[in-house]
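REVIEWER CHECKLIST
Item 1: Sequence provided? yes
Item 2: Single chain? yes
Item 3: Sequence as submitted:
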Amino acid sequence: MNRSNRRGKHKIFIGMSPGVGKTYRMLEEGHRLKQEGVDVVIGLLETHNRHDTIEKAIGLEQVSRKLVTYSGVTLTEMDTEAVIARQPQLALVDELAHTNVPGSEHEKRYQDVEQILAAGIDVYSTVNIQHLESLNDLVARITGVVVRERIPDRLLEQADEVVVVDVTPETLEERLKDGKIYAPEKIDQSLQNFFQRRNLVALRELALREIADNVEGDAIEDTNPNTTAPYCNIHERVLVCVSTYPNSLQLLRRGARISNYMRAPLYCVFVGDPDRFLTKAESLQIETCERLCKEFDGQFIRVSDLDIAKAISEVAKRYRITQIVIGESQRSRWKTLLKGSLTQRLLKLLKNIDVHIIATENKT
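Item 4: Structure as written out by the authors:
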């Protein structure tokens, strides 16, 4: 069957580091699909002499590697043309970020994968989070290791599916000590360097957050503009509602603590009355709030609307807010009974958003 009229689908298995089980999981999926009648081949497999991986590959057809001679040494790379000529439905390709031997048709293995996809063949591939181009500097700061082999972020963005293969740092350390990742002579050095517990914790969080970003982004893109269904808000986002009342600075500090605790972006909104100008004191109050918001690395938002609750709810939807911080009502109980409080109106307008009502000293 000629599949050249369509582009193949790409599924990426990503993990926080070597040894989490990306290749093993990819091979498992290959076996399952083969049993379902899918024509599966291994385009390129790096076993690193791991016994479990070698065993898992048994029963899957492997396309022979291509021999490449460089500086008098013969090395092997994936034979991309042979994979395409074989015309399987699915090709399994390990280590997406690998740099090919100089003189190969493509500099990087991910470029070989793109050629296979363009031929209409589906590809399952593997990669570690530290190989993403945009995370390169951050990974270097965390681990002290500069990763030379990198892939463009667009590969993850364009992939049809991304699967996080996740294990705890403790499990990964056990695998390393048991000799399931590297040879015995490399174990102690690895534990002292890249595989330090703090590195693994940070890399794991990076991997999970990166995929959460992708999932949330896809959900937003797929949302029908005419639907009333809520956004898929995976990350927390905190919005502090400030006013000309003196308690606004207290609210902002509380909101900053909440956002810091949740590791969430901070936003601050002031809704102005379009029918009146602020006094000099009121303007100074809002400017102080804006300055403090920026000191907390937050984003300050000014809107003008007679309906404060509606304006806040619209900002919350636009910025996909998950937590709102607001002060207790400054109205008298009599006015609250007659017209209802801002908080009550917000709760009616907002869905799937937590509202924090902060009790503050009334200094007016």
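Item 5: Key structural point noted by reviewer: Residues 197-222 form the longest helix (26 residues).
Item 6: Recommendation: ____
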